[in-house]
Amino acid sequence: MHPFRVTFSEALRAALFGPRSAPRWARYTRIVVSALLIGIGADQVVSAIGEWPLHDMDTYLAAAVRLRNGEPLYVPGAAYSVYWYAPWFAALWIPVSYLPRVIVAIGWSAVLLIATGLICLRLGRIGSSGLLLALLMGPSLFAVSAGGNVQALMLLPLLSWPSRRSGPLWVALAASLKLTPILFVLVYMRRRQWVATAVTVAAAGILVVPGLLMGLFRSGSTLDWGTSIFALSPLLYVTVVGTTVVGVFIVPFRISVLAACSAAVLALPRLFVYDATLLCAGTDSRLHETVDHQQQRSK
Fold it and tell me: Per the structure, how many domains does the chain have?
């Protein structure tokens, strides 16, 4: 049997209780951790269902309306309602901006929830560790989807980006939305995949530069740093992010992707709980271990 092709019941039992050969203390620890994750996740899901505000969706729609009316796309506003993505994303919302909000809300919520479910299924296929990760990340994705944020839809194609020819495009698209995923290009550099590196940087530039010319950093969207390492100390921010970036080039190939994802999370100027879900893009080792073997054989 392929080591990653386990039944759901086997993986769930291993995730909650650990392997039967594990020491009793390890099994009890896993049970406690699983219970905490289930409890925290349930609280997030219940809170999300009770509110379902879709504030971020409203931000996207407002940006689309400004764009279609020829108004400035980037305008100052409240820290949690400022549009700071690339212009292409606002343009994508123009057609649906003519529809009633309730229709857009139902459709967009469905898309995000489907993406969240697919991510959890993909994580679960890894095995018991993947199921624990799904218990940890799934509720956060569900909760941020209730806010209408694009996170789940952006993350879904990133799960297998190192082993896909379209990987540079997905990384560039993510970078144009959340900026720091551009650090994923470090993996291509570590593996000496120079074509992929160049394509990623060029595509990200094409997507992001129009926003810079239209006043992205003059909109006030980056003035409130909120909760982040940068908010605590700029020097600490540079030290931590710089160390993690260097780590991408010195850790084993197998975890270089996870190191790059960690750098992308730590580099975020405003850090929210759901931002940690970006780490999922570095955990699907089953999908990129073939690339690792190819790189190691080429040395």
Answer: 1
Q: What confidence tens digit (pLDDT) does each residue in 130-146 have?
A: 777 888 888 889 999 99
To which H or E segment does residue 274 belong? Answer: none
On whether the CB atoms of residues 250 and 155 are closer than 8 A, the answer is no
Query: Distance from CA of residue 192 to its chain's centroid?
Result: 24
pTM (two decimals): 0.81
Residue 135 near residue 16, CB atoms below 8 Å: no
Q: Could you tell me the two tokens for 25? A: 């203390």
Q: Is residue 2 part of a domain?
A: no
Q: How many CB atoms sit inside 10 A of residue 66's CB?
A: 17
Residue 100 belongs to what H/E stretch? none
Q: In angstroms, what CA-CA distances link 219 with 77, 264, 269, 283?
A: 8, 23, 15, 35
Q: Which domain holds residue 249?
A: 8-298
Q: Which long-range contacts (CB under 8 A, 24 or more apart) does 185-190 make?
A: 186/245, 186/248, 186/249, 186/256, 186/260, 186/263, 187/162, 187/248, 187/256, 187/257, 187/260, 189/249, 190/248, 190/249, 190/253, 190/256
3 lies in a domain?
no
User: Is residue 1 a part of any domain in this protein?
Assistant: no
Residue pLDDT, tens place only, 247-291: 999 998 888 999 999 999 999 887 788 888 998 898 754 444 443
Residue 17 burial (C-beta neighbours within 10 Å; 0-12, 13-18, 19+) = middle
| Residue among 157, 186, 151 nearest 169 (CA) | 157
